[in-house]
Amino acid sequence: MDAFYASVEQRDNPALRGRPVAVGGDPTTRGVVAAASYEARTFGVRSAIPMSRAVRLCPSLVIVRPDFQKYRAVSQQVFALFREVTPLVEPLSLDEAYLDVTANSWGEPLGVTVARRLKDAIKETTRLTASAGVAPNKFLAKIASGWKKPDGLTVVAPERVELFLKGLPVDALWGVGPVTAAKLREHGIDKLTDVRTRSQADLEAVVGSLAPWLIDLAHGRDERRVQPNRPSKSSSSERTYATDLSGMSEIRQEIDKMARDVAAWLQKRGITARTVTIKVRYSDFTTVTRSHSTPLLTDDADAIAARALALLAKTEAGARPVRLLGVGVHNLDTDEDEAPSAELKLPFS
Description:
It is built from twelve helices and twelve strands. It is of the alpha/beta class.
């Protein structure tokens, strides 16, 4: 979906149409941008940046607080359309998914035709636009889906894969963020196809165990299947604070509450977990995580909270001011069908 949260808000409020809109938190209390309209993006406003920075980039920015209940309702409409076409739908988020349309209920032989019909159905049903990428595998389809946003449709036919790959920068590779991209460029690897010129050993010296995966992607290889209803692998609760926390008592209370939140999430779904993780971000943006795993699975709130608090003692929280705290559970044992991951709270406060 194109600028999903912001587009929903512009759809529902005509006064926002054509204006730079950011969905997210208060710029005076460390809020962040959850989504930015395309009008806002021309000023450099992007999701995940601090809202205070977004306002500096675009003084005319209109800020809208997120309404996730509304976004989920629209998401359900979109995913219902997907599943009318194929049961092979792998959700990535509320507004994005992989679909395997090799076989589809419309009997369409061409993926591009399925994509075009789905885009039309989404627009008719939700009055919103979506962009689609059609390709032989997930990696290429993902890149193609963002190629001509908004309302885009990009097809990478098998015979065009090599030409498509040659035009991609190294940070188009799955798993390559800004830091890894900078490391690769320091070693003369600027284009995706430059990866092919280096041995696996050379790449491992730069990116470690990611090297074989990058080599496959640089050749356009991705054998991952679309996995419908993939079980949840983790759940987390986190919060960014308007004012740094410095008192250990308050920090412990926050960790305890988050731990009980994720325990409640487990209990509600009949899921148990082996691993408890906490995240602490200090006032200088240094972030640390601490984890504890046991062979025994649990959903017990007291046990999870106790483990989270024990992990907290292994950080400098209290001695150093804290701007963000989080608690997560991982290594889940579940038979329940879920989205790829779950988040109980989003740091837009």
